[in-house]
Predict the structure of UDP-glucose 4-epimerase.
Amino acid sequence: MKVLLAGGAGYIGTHTAVQLLKGGYEVVVVDNYDNSCPEAVKRAEALAGGKISLYEADIQDRDAVQAILAKEQPETVIHFAGLKAVGESVAKPLKYYRNNINTTLSLLEAMADTGVKRIIFSSSATVYGEQNPAPYNEEMPKGLCTNPYGWTKSIMEQILADAATANPELGVVLLRYFNPIGAHESGRIGEDPQGIPNNLMPYVSQVAVGRREQLTVFGGDYDTPDGTCLRDYIHVMDLADGHVKAVEFSAGHKGVEIFNLGTGKPYSVLDIVNTFQQVNGVKVNYAIGPRRAGDLPVCYADAGKAKKVLGWEAKRTLADMCRDSWNWQKNNPDGYQDA
Ligand code: NAD
Ligand code: WQD
């Protein structure tokens, strides 16, 4: 079976490509390298000992996508292609709405024209918004998002659901990721943010490796056990395995199905810093600073549905996540630029 990964040269896409190839799937990647590079795809091929058909194209370009789908005829598309920096989305909302929504429309239209009937979408826990109490389950109504990035995910979920209602042949799987961290255990592929990292783990790793002076912990006065925010961190390889299970699931299902991909276990910012230091024997300088606007105190998954329906659950521990993040960072201090 063949799977096309739109945005597959990125962080989650490359790890998923490795696990799909290892699972015997044929893999096609289409990316415009807006936030990635071909080197990552080469390394994914080497890790899996397989071949990836690689195309450079903007997924917003419907004709280009249609030509690739017609040529490759994948059974399933996984839609990773999107812009994901929350802060930038506040400053440049139209850029985010244009790219994220147009990629989704373009993919759906090109799929309809070429007879591809299954799509798996990279959604986010952010769609639960501020109103729902954690742990979040898939039955909860979506909430009000706190930034344009989150709204693009919420709107794209709606577009995909409406497309499935109109076309009963379409199968849509919405995967709501929690906080992916970690890297392939080889240290050959990992997260390679450009500029100052927005997310916690890349920041922690860059402080540990000496690229940044000190981590600012955003808020130490939340109503949580140690005063810092709680999140559901999930190893990117567990996430990749979740995608393989979702591909298997989508082969036998039409309509829309939603799954949380998280561990169901909340950890604090200080849990991350302390575990990272202990597991890796390195120092992470940090100081408690003011809260960051828009942060929820607590966000974690009810991971029961994915276990029951997909037969998937996260297996890797927080220590594994910290070890593998560091292994990637220390072997590639400047990310793929080192190649
Ligand atoms: P990433 O930036 O590493 O990967 C996204 C890929 O999409 C990049 O390779 C980028 O070049 C590509 N891309 C973007 N716009 C494109 C376009 N118009 N045409 C072709 N390619 C395009 O991000 P990631 O962490 O791998 O995330 C993958 C998906 O999962 C994204 O949609 C993201 O919003 C979603 N997601 C990520 C997280 C997270 O914390 N990493 C959490 C929830 C959801
Ligand atoms: C985690 C915790 C911060 C950086 C975001 C998006 C979400 C999803 C995942 C998708 C929080 C704290 C962080 C730092 C800190 N995205 N922190 N100092 O905000 O839970 O989720 O990424 O594509 O939609 O909103 O993740 O890694 O930014 O923060 O103290 O320098 O670490 O306050 O408590 P977040 P994060």
In short: The longest helix spans residues 93-114. The mean pLDDT is 98.
